[in-house]
Amino acid sequence: MYGTYLRRELVGRTKQTVIVAVGLAIAIALVIVVNALSAGVRDAQSQALSSVYGVGTDLTVTGAQTEPGQGGGARFDFGAGEGATSDGTTTLNQSRLLTERRRATLDASTVSTVSGVDGVSAATGALALTNTTFSGQVPERRSQSGTDTGTGTAPGSGTGEPPAGGPTGDGGSAFGVDSFSVLGVDPSASVGPLSSVTVSAGRALAASDAGTDVAVVDATYAASASLSVGGTIDVGGTAMQIVGIVASTSADADTAANVYLPLDVAQALSGAGNVVSTVYVQAESADAIDAVQSKISAALPDATVSSQAQLASSVSGSLSSASSLISNLGTWLSVVVLLVALALAVLFTISGVARRTREFGTLKAIGWSNGRIVRQVAGESLVQGLIGGAVGLLLGLGGILLVNVIAPTVSVGSAATAGPGGQGGRGGGFGQAAAQATDIVLHAPLTPVVIVAAVGIAVLGGVVAGAFGGWRAARLSPAAALRSVA
Q1: What is the dihedral of CA 298, 304, 307, 309, to 10 degrees?
Q2: Is residue 27 domain-shared with residue 71, that is, in the same domain?
Q3: How far apart are alpha carbons 123 and 111 in whole angstroms?
Q4: Residue 21 contacts by C-beta under 8 Å, 6 or more apart in sequence?
Q5: Three-state SS string across 128-191, please?
Q6: Which structural domain, as residue segments, surrounds residue 75?
């Protein structure tokens, strides 16, 4: 009896049922798509952060940033007799191993200081460098003052810089500058950049490699430079034997540098002395990270202490914009549409009850109780809500499918660099995000939470509309029906 009457009333009021169901369907579909996109952006952020170096490291300690203009660039000084001269042209070739220009280094004793901080499980230091090689040909020219411009130096002077290239005067010069990133690491350390790589050929650096001219090379760089295990690579003018090829443990991440050297070797070749550019810190537990960061900052007031959470806030580009848009505009839009849909459902239900005054009054006159009438109105509203939920779920799934088919991309860049690197390399810690923008495909995953939310919203809409409509219907009296008939 109840079901038959319920079905008849819904069919007889098709227009109201359709309007209420469509309103709820649009709101539910929007909520589903917005939540799926939010989950997709979070996944994209995780993918972007997985490409940041120092996997397994909780904190990094780096030197203070220097003011712009300080430090200067790579300087190549050539003696008057350097290079090979043939047919009036001097061929020059020189490599320099340099620390980052705009970030101060830390004394190696900083590692011991950090290790002694309460809550630190492990700490190790690394020295981020850039190997820059100048090679080219400079024609020998004479000026009226007798200066030998072929090598860029006056006769008898010791050093100078090569000309800027291109034809000048009665001749021309041609040269190139090539660079790759180098990271000096402690071979015996269990944390730091080497903890996030796997050996694809040869072997990794071992504690016994300290003080020896050996190197481990990134697989991508080795392929581009045609390097292999057993060969050599020139670093700072010294031939280093390649003992291993390594790749990142994550398919979405790069390694921290093109070339890895034992820390003491990197310090000696660069002439930087007993210093490091980054200290990698592992806390005893995740709960202790904030406290450890505060203690290290207090112990090293001139250093920069960064955490992964701070790095996440530095991810910029359209990924950050998309996240902000979905979190703010999308969420508020969903809330507004949902409220409008609920308001329409309530208003249409109350309006329908008002038009059914004769019907409800008559039902009361023949013995229907207020509770039975309330259940009737609430049941109709609940069914309308469930229909809207089913349609909204289909629309939402269609929207998610459309997003995944289109597969939009978002760009990820670095808004700030808290770690070393950035001088022709890829950095040495998780504070250094990718120097160049990379595109990440945005997917909108469907989660059980989204489906539960859709059903919940549908039931909520039906219950709210039914509660107001039932309350209105319960207030009618049989006398109102008799007056309506008269």
Answers
A1: 110
A2: no
A3: 6
A4: 384, 385, 387, 388, 391
A5: EEEEEEEEEEEECCECCCCCECCCCCCCCCCCCCCCCCEEECCEEEEEEEEEEEEEEECCCCCC
A6: 64-302
Closest CA to 378 of 404, 350, 400, 399: 350
Does 56 reside within a domain? no
- Say if 405 falls within a structural domain: yes
Q: Is residue 402 part of a domain?
A: yes
The model's pLDDT over 132-150, given as tens digits with 9 standing for 90+, comes to 887 777 666 544 444 444 4
Tens digit of pLDDT for each residue in 290-311? Answer: 899 999 999 999 888 888 666 6
Residue 354's φ and ψ, nearest 5 degrees, are -65, -35
Amino acid at 205: L
Residue 385 is encoded by which pair of tokens?
Answer: 């809500």
Contact between 424 and 179 (Cβ < 8 Å): yes
* Contact yes or no for 244/218 (Cβ under 8 A): no
CA separation, residue 105 to residues 72, 124, 208 (Å):
15, 14, 26
* Co-location of 173 and 275 in the same domain: yes
> Same structural domain for residues 384 and 444?
yes
pLDDT tens profile 26-70: 888 887 887 787 777 767 766 665 554 444 567 889 887 665 444
Give the bridge partners for 134, in sequence order: 94, 177
d(C-alpha 76, C-alpha 89), whole Å: 18
Evaluate whether 35 touches 237 at the Cβ level (below 8 Å): no
Indicate if 166 and 285 belong to the same structural domain. yes
Number of domains in the chain: 2
Calpha distance 33→35 (Å, rounded): 5
Query: For residue 8, is it within any domain?
Result: yes
Q: Are 431 and 62 in contact (CB under 8 A)?
A: yes
- With H, G, I as helix, E, B as strand and everything else as coil, classify residue 392: helix
Contacts of 129 (CB under 8 A, 6+ apart): 97, 98, 99, 181, 182, 183, 184, 266, 270, 272, 425
Q: What is the pLDDT of residues 417-434, one digit of tens each?
A: 434 443 334 444 444 433
Q: Mean pLDDT in the chain? A: 74
Residue 268 and residue 344 in one domain: no
